[in-house]
Every structure is written in structure tokens, then in C-alpha cells.
Design a protein that fits this description.
By secondary structure, chain A is mainly β. Chain A contains no helices and eleven strands. In chain A, strands 2, 4, 5, 6, 9, 10 and 11 form a seven-stranded mixed sheet that branches. Chain A is globular and about 35 Å long. The relative contact order of chain A is 0.33. Helix content of chain B is 0%, strand content 58%. In chain B, strands 2, 4, 5, 9, 10 and 11 form a six-stranded mixed sheet that branches. A five-stranded antiparallel sheet of chain B has the order 1-3-8-7-6, with no helix packed on it. The chains are: A mainly beta (113), B mainly beta (111). The interface between A and B is medium-sized, with 21 and 21 residues.
């Protein structure tokens, strides 16, 4: 079974630039999550999708972050404009059901200079 | 907001020894999960324990849950160098299925 795919794996941008991350979840998983993990901390949920719809985006900085899930499968997370404090690893995860274990992708390490 | 707090923050042991790490949380839960993260394999789910369960085993892993104390422990028996990683507990909010991760325990197992 293929795992959660993410791209790119690494990205370096200057502050005020924009960046986009892509995620392809495990086939058949209805729930998709985006997390931000700052060095030395645990992952923090940014947004949770159930199929096409947003379940929770309470911790998404909506003035600069946006996310969508196309046709209930792939998802993109965008940051525009980026700030220095956005430097982190962005993790995508999926699960068969909202209350089940989550499967994580390898993450995208973002460095904002 | 931080729901789970792991203790200790860091742990160093020799191969063959047991490793125990603890997690405390603040609000009621439906389930608690443990994850492992290392540079090679990313974040991997280890075990899920539901609020009505007290103990669960998976291979060399044993997880206990005490809902009256709002705490859980993860025991790794006969540790190996490959167990070197950060270990996180994650809880739902009780009335939500949003997972909230703790700050993690960094385990170093020396050969």
C-alpha cells in the first residue's frame, strides 16, 4: 500500500514570497490533515478535511495560509506572504476515519530567510 | 494549546534496557495515541488506546492509561539502537477528534 506522498521535500524562500505544498493521501482515506512542526515541538494541526469539506481550521493563520482539497483526494497548502516564523516542517497525514490512527507523509521542510 | 506533556524530555539508555516515558493530559479523552518520529521514517503511529482500556500491548511496546490521573505511559522493553527517536503522545479533545500532540520525549539508545 502506497503511503502519503508530499512534495517538495525541501523549500527555501525569502520572506514575503509565496510557497505551496502538495499532498496525496492514502487511497480511500477520507480525512486529511495538515500539521506544522516547529523544531523541538510536537506537530500542531493547521487544518483538517473530511472529503472536500473543512472540519477544523481554527489554528490556521487565515490571513496568510490557505488550503484546499481537490475532489476529496489531493490537497495543497499555500503560504502567502511567508514570514520568518513560518520556518518549520509541514506534515500531511490521512486517516480512514476521523477517530482512527493517522498516517503521515515525509513532510516538507520550509526555510524562510 | 498543549494537551499532552511527555516526561522526561530526554532519555538515554543502553541497548537491552527498558525505556519508560510518560504522558499527562488535561481534558477528558476518547482515545490516546503514541507516535514515533525519527529522521529516517518520519512520524509513525505506534499504538492507540481507548478511554475504556487500561493496558495495550504491541510487540515490545506496552501502553497503560489511567483516566483518573489523566496519564499514560509507554514502555519499550529490550530496547534497540533502532528505537532511537522522539516519541509523542497525542490525545483527542474528548468531544472532538482533533489530535493534539505533546512536546515529545527524545530517546537515545546506545549500542
Amino acid at each position: 500500500e502506497a503511503g502519503v506522498a508530499q512534495s517538495p521535500r525541501y523549500k527555501i524562500i525569502e520572506k514575503r514570497q509565496s510557497v505551496a505544498f502538495w499532498c496525496n493521501p492514502i487511497s480511500g482515506h477520507a480525512t486529511l490533515y495538515w500539521y506544522q512542526q516547529i523544531l523541538g515541538q510536537g506537530p500542531k494541526l493547521l487544518i483538517q478535511f473530511q472529503n472536500n469539506g473543512v472540519v477544523d481550521d481554527s489554528q490556521l493563520p487565515k490571513d496568510r495560509f490557505s488550503a484546499e482539497r481537490l475532489k476529496g483526494v489531493d490537497s495543497t497548502l499555500k503560504i502567502q506572504p511567508a514570514k520568518l516564523e513560518d520556518s518549520a516542517v509541514y506534515l500531511c497525514a490521512s486517516s480512514f476515519h476521523r477517530a482512527y490512527e493517522q498516517y503521515f507523509g515525509p513532510g516538507t521542510r520550509l526555510t524562510v530567510t | 494549546s498543549q494537551q499532552g506533556e511527555e516526561d522526561p524530555q530526554a532519555l538515554s539508555i543502553q541497548e537491552g534496557e527498558n525505556a519508560t516515558m510518560n504522558c499527562s493530559y488535561k481534558t477528558s479523552i476518547n482515545n490516546l495515541q503514541w507516535y514515533r518520529q525519527n529522521s529516517g521514517r518520519g512520524l509513525v503511529h505506534l499504538i492507540l488506546i481507548r478511554s475504556n482500556e487500561r493496558e495495550k500491548h504491541s510487540g515490545r511496546l506496552r501502553v497503560t492509561l489511567d483516566t483518573s490521573k489523566k496519564s499514560s505511559s509507554l514502555l519499550i522493553t529490550a530496547s534497540r539502537a533502532a528505537d532511537t527517536a522522539s516519541y509523542f503522545c497525542a490525545t483527542d479533545g474528548g468531544n472532538t477528534d482533533k489530535l493534539i500532540f505533546g512536546t515529545g520525549t527524545r530517546l537515545q539508545v546506545f549500542p
